[in-house]
Amino acid sequence: MMNMNYEVIATMAADLSKQMLKLNNQLDKIIDKQNELRDPDEQQAAAIALIEAQQWEDAAKLCAEQAKEAAKRSKLDDDERSLREQLETLRVQLAEAAEGNTASTSGLKAVESASDDASDEATDAA
Question: Which pTM was predicted?
Answer without folding.
Answer: 0.71
